[in-house]
Write a structure and sequence with these properties.
Creatine Kinase, Chain A, domain 2, alpha+beta, 11% strand, globular
Length: 506
């Protein structure tokens, strides 16, 4: 597929100036020895339920830092850095784990604390959803962290966004190759599983040519969800697939039950998906939701507003996990997906894409590796080079608009990475683990986490920044209190209403 020149010419300065990107970055909180922190979400950070920039993901020990949507890459990264600065100043001696694959975790899954959001119905539902995830998949998998990249371009219709998504899924192997940074993990993480990994010293496991174990079989994968075969040919098809998964009981989850023998809650529902966010994928169509609204209802009512890229690992060599060159390559890649023709997907192609993702996650830097394209084998490096070469005219357009060469430089760096895979983040991790007698995954990640904290804290920080973040934290705690005071429904009635098929729209 090549870039459609008419669409490229339609990228006016006005459109490019309103292209927006935001970042959501997950990180585990760990103690000074690199063990999972068991402290509550620090009160000084505000309410995990209502703070616009600082919340938790699956675990109480897993922070999620969120930027707004900005017109310039530098503004997005600057905000992400300032959020990090505030966090580091209020977590005591704790660190933010810089690796996507987790630190040494407790032997008992139930010692990994679930996120807590207060006493309101919506807060209890958020924790119960996480309880359901732990029953369905185990808590270890949920502690894997990554970066989500939210991106929009004015003028794109819902159909345009789905065309972009189809192309993204076809070519996302390029991002796994370039930015995968999780080729290894702590041996304890793989305990009791058929992981197929190789030992690396006494305390780590890895695959020598892996790019992203996070996106492979040990990461966010679900055999149950693999049965969905979701099509991205249009919103109606996508919504119908999710609607069924959200409303039809799934036998294995019916066996778990809504409640345990003692009456304690176990999950929000017994359907294949408890809520929309449980559906795993490399990219999602999204829209900002209204208070209490279900995401699927928002999509059906008002269409797609932006896409959420979900296949990006934390780069442990960058203090905030992502840098300017990565952001700009993502912009180029998403524009390429948008500007290129995008034929409908099919069950056969969906199966090929799953195969390609697993292959690149486990073996992406293997010399001579081939993928499947239309039933035929193609060299990964050849295909990746073709995709990046087609991004060249887009980089020229963006650079001309910006009056600099930042996009072209980011593209050249990516092309060099395809030619020299030993320079890629995943290769750098393996080298760091094996050089000079070797270090364990814990030792390397802990050292890099300490360096990241020191680097962030050395950045400029003003009294105005401190005051603004403190005020935001205080407002979020007040908003949580208001929500809790306004609750009137019993939780069971709230839960039944929230998971009702009527809330999903038609």
């Amino acid at each position: 597929m090549t870039v459609n020149q008419n669409r490229l010419r339609a990228l006016t300065p006005t459109l490019l100036g309103d292209m927006r990107r935001g970042i959501e970055k997950e990180s585990l909180r760990v103690d000074a020895a690199g063990r999972l922190a068991h402290t509550p979400h620090p009160a000084a950070l505000g309410s995990a339920l209502t703070h616009p920039h600082i919340t938790t993901d699956f675990s109480e020990s897993q922070l999620e830092l969120i930027t707004g949507a900005h017109r310039r890459p530098a503004h997005t990264l600057d905000e992400l850095r300032r959020v990090h600065q505030f966090v580091y100043r209020h977590v005591g001696n704790e660190l933010l784990w810089v690796s996507s694959m987790p630190c040494e975790l407790p032997e008992d899954d139930h010692d990994i604390p679930l996120g807590q959001y207060g006493t309101s119905n919506v807060a209890q539902a958020k924790t119960l959803y996480r309880e359901g995830l732990s029953w369905r998949y185990g808590r270890r998998m949920q502690t894997i962290s990554g970066i989500h990249y939210n991106w929009s371009l004015p003028g794109l219709t819902t159909d345009d966004y789905f065309a972009l998504i189809r192309n993204f899924r076809r070519h996302s192997f390029v991002l796994l190759l370039l930015f995968g940074a999780s080729p290894a993990l702590a041996r304890s993480f793989g305990a009791g599983t058929e992981h197929g990994l190789q030992p690396l010293g006494d305390h780590s496991l890895y695959l020598p040519h892996a790019t992203s174990l996070r996106m492979g079989r040990l990461g966010y994968q679900s055999d149950a969800q693999a049965e969905l075969q979701v099509s991205y040919n249009c919103l109606d098809n996508y919504a119908a697939s999710l609607h069924g998964a959200l409303t039809q009981a799934y036998p294995a989850y019916e066996t778990i039950g809504l409640r345990g023998p003692g009456g304690q809650w176990r999950q929000l529902s017994t359907s294949l998906l408890q809520i929309e966010n449980e559906f795993y994928g490399t990219i999602r169509p999204k829209r900002v939701i209204r208070p209490g609204e279900r995401p699927l209802h928002a999509l059906r009512e008002r269409g797609v507003e932006y896409v959420e890229v979900r296949c990006m690992d934390l780069n442990p060599f960058i203090d905030i996990g992502i840098d300017d060159a990565t952001v700009r390559l993502l912009d180029l890649f998403l524009l390429h997906c948008s500007l290129s023709d995008s034929p409908p997907d099919s069950p056969a192609e969906i199966a090929e894409l799953a195969h390609n993702q697993q292959t690149v996650a486990a073996r992406g830097r293997e010399p001579g590796l081939t993928l499947l394209k239309g039933g035929q084998a193609i060299a990964l490096t050849d295909w990746a080079a073709q995709v990046l070469q087609q991004c060249g005219v887009i980089a020229e357009t963006l650079d001309a608009w910006e009056g600099a060469d930042h996009y072209s430089r980011a593209l050249r760096a990516a092309q060099a990475g395809v030619r020299e895979p030993d320079t890629l983040p995943s290769a750098r991790v393996v080298h760091a683990l094996t050089a000079g007698g070797g270090r364990s995954h814990r030792e390397l990640s802990l050292a890099l986490s300490q360096q990241a904290r020191d680097s962030v804290l050395a950045s400029a920080w003003s009294a105005d920044d401190a005051a603004a973040f403190a005020a935001c934290a205080a407002r979020s705690l007040a908003e949580q209190a208001q929500i809790e005071a306004a609750d009137t429904l019993p939780f069971e009635q709230f839960r039944e209403d929230y998971v009702s098929p009527a809330r999903l729209g038609l």
